[in-house]
Design brief:
By secondary structure, the protein is of the alpha/beta class. It is built from 12 helices and 22 strands. Helices cover 27% and strands 21% of the residues. Helix 4 packs across helix 11. The protein starts with a strand and ends with a helix.
């Protein structure tokens, strides 16, 4: 008999890290497979290029499906134990009732009561995750945040503190996207996974590339029975389990499922971006916005579609390489002497992040391997109007705050979601309300791809809440998938 576990989890980010960690702490024998390396705080330094090489996926682009429009979307994700939670800014904002209503409208998702899925269905899991991570308000604003707040107030609105999963060890040095060197920023790597590893029922295998989920018909229809993965030496391994959770990331999960034989017309077809622009203002005084905790405040007065459909966060600044390679003005990407002049004034710039609601018209197009997967975007006129409105408002904020010059980036995101969405209507969703793939027993989706519709807020805490909900469902084991697996795997 080969290796057997109660549950195998593929991917260790906001979704997979929580599922695996919770199951491990509940005593379920769980194997966590992560394609990236296992890095910890001792490995993280403020070295932009090194972090991009060591713990990021290579930058990927969603190319316009038709008219070039606003151009491609640059997509950033973590590739390490902890996934994107290692390199994000830890903002913990809940989906609101309007966001959740879109979930039901798009996929027919209902809760335990049979009513449309709403705040009461997800609130207990938000509470649990927020308590576990020590979510707190960030009221420790830097001078650059207070500076731009004057611009918001001049336009009749204001900034509010964000909530984040950071603790008192946060030293406000701004290196979140290179990994937190103080462990002040919480990730699934230094919380859920680390604690479950100590508990002894979670086994972690980094640098493990899952080639496919093993799906067989053993008399009751198609069901997941395990996975096949390649270790760092290139050797292939087959591991069996009572249930498999695919949480490889919104961009990776559809391709892995497709290459494993899962077929559904919506697989990968409802990719959302929550697209954003960084908008920069140059001031007379030094802002040193690269040397602060990146996001301590936001303005969400316009988060609903009818109000504009965007949220603006402050203050944030790319490190020099990212800044220099992404700047645009009304003429397009900058180059030559104007770019040199802008970068020379690096310390005088501060940035706002304008994040826009989209309607999930993107797609993951699976290839023969993950390297061959492709991605498309296709923004409607309504989405373009929101994108342009967010940029215009943010420019006016910076100008009202006293900026001498305003520049911005193209579209960028770390908030990809919705490519394998859950729902109660099999014709409008890839997986059911409990995240089990329609038509394949024992196979679950547990990452941002499960989100039924792009949210108007940062998605990580919602992905974690949905993952906690999935872990609870798996532990209850209503279908008996894990029965007998613990003894077999011991």
């Amino acid at each position: 008999m080969g290796e057997r576990y109660e549950v195998i989890v593929i991917g260790s980010g906001a979704g997979g890290g929580v599922v695996a960690g919770e199951l491990g702490l509940r005593g379920r024998r769980t194997l966590l497979l992560e394609t990236g390396p296992h890095k910890t705080a001792v490995d993280f330094t403020r070295f932009e290029a090194k972090a991009a090489h060591d713990i990021w996926w290579p930058i990927r682009f969603a190319m316009p499906a038709g008219d070039w429009g606003r151009g491609p979307v640059t997509m950033i994700a973590g590739r390490c134990v902890g996934g994107t939670t290692v390199i994000n800014t830890k903002v913990a904002m809940r989906a609101d009732a309007v966001d959740l209503a879109k979930w039901h409208a798009d996929t027919g998702l209902v809760g335990e009561s049979g009513e449309p899925f709403g705040e009461d269905d997800i609130a207990p899991y938000y509470d649990r995750v927020e308590s576990y991570l020590g979510v707190r308000p960030r009221e420790d604003w830097s001078s650059t945040v207070r500076n731009v707040d004057r611009g918001f107030r001049a336009l009749g609105t204001r900034l509010q503190p964000v909530f984040s999963y950071t603790d008192e060890n946060c030293t406000n040095i701004g290196s979140c996207m290179q990994g937190c060197p103080t462990n002040g920023g919480k990730s699934t790597q230094n919380t859920y996974i680390a604690r479950a590893l100590i508990h002894g029922t979670l086994e972690l295998r980094p640098d493990a590339r899952v080639e496919r989920v093993l799906i067989e018909d053993r008399g009751e229809g198609a069901e997941a029975v395990g996975v096949e993965y390649t270790d760092p030496s290139g050797e292939r391994h087959r591991v069996e389990a009572g249930a498999v959770v695919v949480a490889a990331g919104t961009l990776n999960t559809p391709g892995l499922l497709a290459r494993s034989g899962v077929e559904h017309p919506l697989l990968g077809r409802t990719l959302g971006f929550h697209p954003a622009r960084l908008v920069f203002g140059r001031f007379d005084d030094y802002q040193d916005a690269h040397n602060v905790y990146p996001i301590t405040s936001h303005c969400d007065d316009f988060r609903h579609d009818e109000d504009g459909g965007f949220v603006v966060e402050a203050a944030t600044m790319q490190d020099p390489i990212g800044f220099a390679t992404s700047l645009e003005d009304s003429g397009g990407p900058m180059w030559g002497q104007p770019l040199v002049d802008a970068v020379r004034e690096f310390r005088r710039w501060t940035g706002l992040l304008a994040m826009v609601n989209d309607d999930n018209h993107g797609a993951v197009v699976p290839g023969q391997s993950s390297e061959e997967d492709a991605f498309t975007c296709d923004f409607t006129a309504a989405e373009v109007e929101r994108l342009d409105g967010a940029l215009d408002f943010t420019r006016r904020v910076l100008e009202a705050a006293g900026a001498r010059e305003v520049l911005w980036t193209g579209l960028v995101t770390t908030h990809m979601q919705g490519s394998c969405r859950i729902g109660s209507d099999p014709e409008r969703s890839v997986a059911g309300a409990n995240a089990e793939i329609h038509g394949v027993r024992r196979l679950f989706v547990g990452d941002g791809s499960a989100v039924p519709r792009t949210m108007s807020s940062n998605p990580s805490i919602t992905i974690m809440a949905l993952a906690a909900r999935l872990a609870e469902h798996l532990d209850r084991d209503p279908a008996g998938y894990l029965a007998g697996m613990a003894a077999a795997s011991a």
